[in-house]
Amino acid sequence: MLGEKYLQLDMSYWGRSQRLVIQILCIWALAAYGLPALVLETNKMLIMGFPLGYYNCAQVIPMFFGFLLLVFNGVQEGIEADQTDGKPAVEAASSSALNAMLAKVYVAYTGGFIFFVLFLGFLEAVGVPDQAIGILFVIFTLGMYAAIGIASRTSKSDDFYVAGRNVPPIFNGMATAADWMSGASFVGMAGTLYALGYDGLAYIIGWTGGYVLVSTVIAPYLRRFGSFTVPEFIASRYQGTMQLPGGKVVELSGVSRFLATIVLLSCSFTYLTAQVYSTGVIVSRFIGIQFEVAVFSGLIGVLFCSLLGGMRAVTYTQVAQYVILIIAYTVPAICMSTTQDDGFNMNNPVDFLAYGGTLQQITLREKELVLLGLASKVTPYLEPKWRRVDFFALTFCLMVGTASLPHVLMRYFTTPSVRSARRSVTWSLGFILVLYMTAPAYAAFAKLEVYTNVIGTPLSVLPQWIFTYGKIGLTTVCGKAVTSVTEAIEACAQATSGDYLLKLKDLKISTDAMVIATPEIAGLPYTIAGLVSAGGLAASLSTADGLLLAISNALSHDIYFRLIDNKASIQKNLMISRVLLVVIALISAGTAASRPADILSMVAWAFSLAASGNFPALCLGIWWRRANAQGAIAGQISGWGLTLAYLLGTRYGGWALWGGISNVAAAVFGLPVGFAANIIVSLLTPPPPDNVLAMVDSLRDFKVTGEDLTAEELEDIKEKEEALARTQVLQVSNTAEATAAATAEASI
């Protein structure tokens, strides 16, 4: 019977699940570190014009991660099907209906957006000014986001915090991808690859590989627990008390909750400020308003969504934002790809298959620049410059950091079931791969264009885009942000513009300018440039939405409601959350408007801070029953504290780098310390309370729910559970009677 199998195979289910996760992670680690270790050797082999080592890291490894998640989902669902006599889980009818309805809405929305872009292209063709087209792009996108926020407004706590826990996996995957692909990914990824070449691929491997950890180690168990926030899970998992020297008893769950909230704030606020900052750059560039005004204008779309509808509104807005940002990112790459005729590709629209010849031309052009005297030395684009330990350390920190960022993990609280959470992670990675598979091609096309058509040209014929982006400080010529040929001549200390050829060292392009400027570098229509800016705006706002909710929800739910006033009504709690949303948004906008010099560097720190502060507590809390509150608190303080100290010390305190490891990868020091402190202190102190151990067991056990079984099957399970309970009571009673009789007999 179904009930008997369910009752008997709990441990078998956990054991098989453990083995599967270990196998998947071994394969994951082999791909993530084995192939990059062989890059110099495999780069000597060519496939479709690509050096194999570079292509493995840029395209093969990220795609393999996606394949690995498909395999994991299939096998894990097979294990779960065995718990129900092979009966597959069936989604609730309401979820299927919602899925179909959302599909119709977003197909219509996508068609409407494409028509809008074509209409703007027509306006450009008939002579409408570029600035007017830019204004229309910004107004349309912000207006759509605000409209979705108004339509999704809610006063229910479940809707506000976790979107009612009914978001279908595919749409939650799109929302997560938009949440993840911040302005840093959209604007900065291709620019980083342009500047660093092969070494920049550490970001692609790290950020895609992190989703394997999310799916196998963290997300399904957080969804099974059913919390609103990451700090809430940590507080519930790490319960216990400790008596202080003065006799006062401290509830440790509140301490762990408070520390988890501090970690959340440390890795989220600067990230949020950077998104608001990039929003101001884009709006000011394409509308022509003052930067400070643009920063606060960009908040309108964010606040309409998160203020009125919380996670529900943010989710459906992020789906719309994903549509815009992915169209905006791929269209210019496809346009450039179809112009390639490099001996390997001719008019190939599949960009991630069409830049092999471009990479070879970059290598040849690097040698030509040196021979022509346009560069004294060129660092090879396709070869590693960093030490392998630096590449691997950064990759590791980005992977673990991805699996620890609260604003990413909270997205998986919104799915209908554990199975949906796992599938949602796979969809997330799939949608993210669309951008990350395109970024290397984007960077290569731009690199060759600059090397061929900009470097070596007289100052008098420098392209206009250099001056356009010089106005906002994103390009420099001879060390100065120039806005005209005259200024370029003065910057390079030349008497005339005709005798001096621009050298490689003379031109500096900010990594943040590359994606926005590439359509103009490649000579594409201004409508395409405006489209890219709309995509960058969508990327920044979508991440700002998620971060703003993560921060405000943690402060209102975990600090105010749980630690200050646990008797507050739902209405009061939601009001506090909305007030905090506005306050945090204004603080971040004020910070961004001051143009802080270190904000972009601090964003990269978020991954190390999240990894060292959250991952040991989350991982051990799920996978090691013995982990207790004292150990978790020790791990949070020591791991996160060491990472923060290394970041601040090497950045501002004059500390030397430990072993030459960049502070971006600071978690390689804090993470093992956090794990060690958690384990050692847990072993030296009493085990967790029985109710916590029962909670851990419930996280690990397969639980059939109303979505999986019919009413008759659920009733059958209930009857079997009651029968087993009666049997256990009877066994205990018989044992007690036998013991009493034996004792009486012995006394006689």
Automatic annotation (TrEMBL):
Transmembrane portions of the chain: 20-40, 52-72, 106-126, 132-151, 171-195, 201-222, 258-277, 289-310, 322-339, 391-413, 425-445, 528-555, 575-593, 599-624, 631-649, 655-681
MF GO annotations: transmembrane transporter activity
Domain Sodium symporter small subunit intervals: 12-79
Main location: membrane
InterPro entries in alphabetical order: Na/Glc_symporter_sf, Na/solute_symporter, Na/solute_symporter_VC_2705, Na_symporter_ssu, Sodium:Solute_Symporter
CDD domains in the cross-refs: SLC5sbd_u4 (cd11480)
Annotated Gene Ontology cellular component terms: plasma membrane
Localization terms from the record: Membrane
Annotated keywords: Membrane, Transmembrane, Transmembrane helix, Transport
Keyword Membrane set for record: yes
This protein's record includes keyword Membrane: yes
Membrane topology annotation: Multi-pass membrane protein
Record-linked PANTHER family: NA(+):SOLUTE SYMPORTER (SSF FAMILY), SODIUM/PROLINE SYMPORTER-RELATED
Assigned protein family: Belongs to the sodium:solute symporter (SSF) (TC 2.A.21) family.
Stated name of the protein: Sodium symporter small subunit domain-containing protein
Native organism: Polarella glacialis (Dinoflagellate)
